[in-house]
Amino acid sequence: MRKSILILKSLLLSALLATTAFAAQKVNINSADAATLDRVLVGIGPSKAEAIVAYRKANGAFRSADQLASVKGIGLSTIEKNRDRIVVAGGAPAAPTKAGAAAKPTAARPAAKPAARPASGG
Fold first, then answer.
1. Which of 27, 66, 78, 116 sees the fewest Cβ atoms within 10 Å?
2. Are 23 and 84 contacting, i.e. CB atoms less than 8 angstroms apart?
């Protein structure tokens, strides 16, 4: 009887420690690769993790966890399940560009000079 109680206590302690360690994992959605996103986020499998990385490459860094809802196949309920695991850090948001098109720098226009006043003779 004593041995079974000890085993039960050990199992409960192990489960508690495993849950704490698992809940402590966080992932930066702006820098993590697909394998890490798949491993850490609940309800995100390999294809959704790849979709997150592809969206990030096409549209720039995420500014908030809620922006993940823009990724096909990810809804607000999935974001809420993972809110404590998601970190949004690093990388300034990049402007979206068309695929295959290089961004063209815009030339600055010179400032207009004020009109010269005619010299008054006197």
1. 116
2. yes
Q: Which two tokens stand for residue 108?
A: 């600055």
Distances, alpha carbon 69 to alpha carbons 26, 35, 79, in Å: 18, 19, 7
> Which two tokens mark 13?
């302690």
Q: Average pLDDT across each block of 10 residues of the chain; the chain has 122 residues. List them in order.
A: 79 65 79 96 96 96 96 95 92 43 45 58 58
- Tell me if 62 sits within 8 A of 122, measured CB to CB: no
Per residue in 107-116, pLDDT (tens digit) is 445 555 555 5
Summarised one tens digit per residue, pLDDT across range 18-32 is: 654 555 599 999 999
Cα–Cα distances in angstroms (integers) from residue 97 to residues 8, 58, 65, 70, 106, in the given order: 58, 7, 22, 16, 15
| 41 contact partners, CB below 8 Å, separation of at least 6 | 27, 49, 78, 82, 85, 86
Q: How far apart are CA 65 and CA 69, in angstroms?
A: 8
